[in-house]
Specification:
Layout lengths: L1 E7 L2 E8 L2 E5 L1 E5 L11 H6 L4 E5 H6 L3 H6 L3 H5 L5 E4 L2 H6 L2 E6 L2 E5 L6 E4 L1 H11 L3 E3 L11 H26 L10 E6 L5 H12 L5 E4 L8 H11 L9 E3 L5 H8 L5 E3 L2 H6 L3 E4 L2 E4 L19 H5 L2 H9 L3 H27 L3 H8 L8
Helix pairs in contact: 6-7, 7-8, 13-14, 14-15
Length: about 375
């Protein structure tokens, strides 16, 4: 499934083969939380934007329209018109961040829907069943997402519970993949490493989940309040204990410089809502830094967002026109801006892969880390 083609330092260049296509890594997964990219981007647009993998969310799709309905309609790929790989988040993060009145027990979590207050239960088996109904390419294990920082003892107990839940996830997925009416009998399972910023807990937890020989492994619980130095330190601490022959996924980390730094520490896959969310507020990525189209200086700027970008937006429209759309609250502003940012991120990953291929990644990192996140 995963082939490591070459390394430059700890940076890895590989291919990840799935039943829905092969992913060139390192790769950024574009986030379509409720089976759509916010900002009016369809699955068909994503092909032109160089997207390789789309990420959808178990919790949101379970709440509406319902995973059973999506299964009845042929699964998530058919439902949203996307033929490439799809990764579904387990729903754990949303259960712990959005849901109110949650109660954690060994069997799972009782919580209230953020939409209508309906009482819901989700545990490892339920998460696997929902993701099986969706028919995604990759299912994420159900884990407890705790605040960072959290007390050491609570974090340790949480890690232990997440391991127990992971055993149940694996057993349930094996059962579901064997059923005759399963949409994707080749669905893969990724485990999630937790442990806040405690080195010993992170390492011990990774050692324990690696023993289950899963299809891939993720680092969760970062980019949630810790400093970037702490985040980089934990990544460097954990990756040596991750299998070389399995894909490595850093969850929810999305600034371009964070991605480059994480690649240099051995990470293969990324996701974040940041590029689409920022775009909808007029904050656009360029190869010289981040611009804010709401600024008055762009009112008469007839140049594209980035002269070095050949996305559909930059090929046809100016900063002045996009700024006008934002000020006029035209829906087209969101669509054109999101298209640019997603294209930028997917091109960034393309350039990272090329740099590793040509043994120039260190030079690439040295050039772009200081500038890509700066505000222009």
């Amino acid at each position: 499934m995963f082939q490591l083609l070459k390394k430059q330092g700890e940076a890895r260049r590989g291919t990840f083969t799935t039943v829905h296509g092969t992913v060139q890594t390192p790769a950024f997964m574009n986030v379509g939380t409720a089976a759509a990219i916010k900002g009016g981007i369809s699955s068909y647009d994503l092909v032109d934007l160089k997207c390789q993998v789309e990420l959808c969310n178990t919790y949101h799709l379970h709440i509406r329209p319902g995973d059973k309905l999506i299964k009845e309609l042929g699964g998530l790929h058919h439902f949203m018109g996307w033929n490439g790989p799809i990764l579904t988040d387990s729903g754990g993060f949303q259960v712990f961040s959005l849901a109110s009145l949650r109660k954690i027990q060994e069997e799972g979590v009782y919580f209230s829907s953020h939409v209508d207050g309906k009482r819901i239960f989700m545990g490892p088996e339920e998460s696997m069943q929902i993701q099986s109904n969706l028919g995604s390419t990759i299912a994420m294990a159900f884990d407890e997402c705790i605040e960072n920082p959290s007390p050491y003892e609570y974090t340790k107990h949480s890690c232990d519970r997440t391991v127990r839940w992971l055993h149940r996830c694996k057993a349930e997925m094996e059962r579901l993949n064997s059923l005759s009416d399963t949409i994707n009998p080749n669905q893969m399972l990724f485990g999630i490493n937790q442990g806040c910023i405690y080195e010993d807990l992170r390492v011990q937890h990774m050692k324990e989940i690696v023993e289950l020989d899963l299809d891939g492994y993720a680092i969760g619980g970062l980019a949630v309040g810790e400093t970037k130095e702490e985040m980089y330190h934990i990544i460097s601490t954990v990756t040596p204990y991750m299998p070389l022959e399995k894909p490595r996924y850093l969850m929810g980390v999305g600034k371009p410089t964070n991605i480059i730094e994480a690649v240099s520490r051995g990470v293969d896959l990324f996701d974040c809502v940041m590029p689409s969310r920022n775009a909808r507020h007029g904050h656009l990525n360029t190869w010289n830094g981040v611009i804010n189209l709401n600024n008055a200086k762009y009112e008469k700027d007839d140049t594209p967002i980035d002269e070095h970008c050949d996305c559909p937006t930059c090929r046809h429209f100016s900063k002045a026109y996009l700024r006008h759309l934002f000020k006029s609250k035209e829906m087209l502003s969101n669509r054109l801006a999101v298209m640019h940012n997603l294209y930028f991120y997917n091109t960034l990953m393309e350039k990272i892969r090329e740099a590793i291929d040509t043994d120039t990644f260190d030079t690439f990192k040295e050039k772009y880390v200081p500038i890509l996140d700066r505000r222009i």
